[in-house]
Structures are given as structure tokens and as C-alpha cells.
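User: Here's a chain of 153 residues. Predict its fold as C-alpha cells.
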Amino acid sequence: MKTIAFELIPNCPLFAEKTSETWDLMVRLLLGITDSLLWNDKQNYLADDLTENLLYTLFYSFLQSGICCDDLWKKFSSCFKLWCHRVKTVLAWGSVLLALTTQVADYLVNETITDCIVFGMHSVEYRAIMDSKFVKYTWIRISSTALQLLKFN
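Assistant: Prediction complete.
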């Protein structure tokens, strides 16, 4: 299995020192790019081809950032509802939710959480380093978004 643990924008002075403001800016930028390509339900070959990479890059950035911003999570959640007509969106969301659920379940059983979450599909792994409190926070956010979507439909 191929593992991807990458710097999203290497050697860029803007992202050289990743403060919470820089992460916030980068996640908002990626969210905007992803939303502009994935929201439309018409046949869009570029969006279809990029869906998986866009979403995993967005998830990786979100998970790596440690951002606990309710406004940003609400935006992410509302965007997801517009993207879920794409199967790859649901699969990516499920992959991340499964990885987070594994971490939370491990915490409930062993009272420990590793600082690395591994998610992905099609023989590509993404590894995000996360604080244990952020794992729980993110798990609650992502699972509640999925539950809201089920109630919505």
C-alpha cells in the first residue's frame, strides 16, 4: 500500500510556519476550491476525476490542522450535503469516519489514542498527526454530519 504523508505546499513562505491562522486560511481555500468543483450534479468529468484527491487533501488538511472552528465545520457540513451525490464523496467521508471511529473505540477500550490517523482507499494511505482531544472533537463533528444527512433525506 502506498503511503502519502506530504507537505501540501512545500517551500511556500505563506505556509512555512503553520500557525492556526495559516491552517484556517489553507482549509478555507481548499474548501472553496473543492466546493466550486463538486457542488454541481451535472456531468463534470474534471470534478469526477478530481473528487477523490480533492476530498482526501481537504480531509488531511482539516485533520492535520487541529482547527476547532464551529463556523468552518458548519460550512464543511453544508458543502458535504451538496457533494454527496458523488459516490466518491461518500466513500471518502466513510473512510475518514471509520479511521476516527477506530481511534475513539481504541480510546474507550484501552484509554489511549495514537497521534496518527490513517485513512484512504485504492491502495493509498493518508496519515494525519492529530492531538487526542481533536480526534474526539472531529469524530463527533463528522459522525453528526452523517446523521444529519440521513435525517435530511
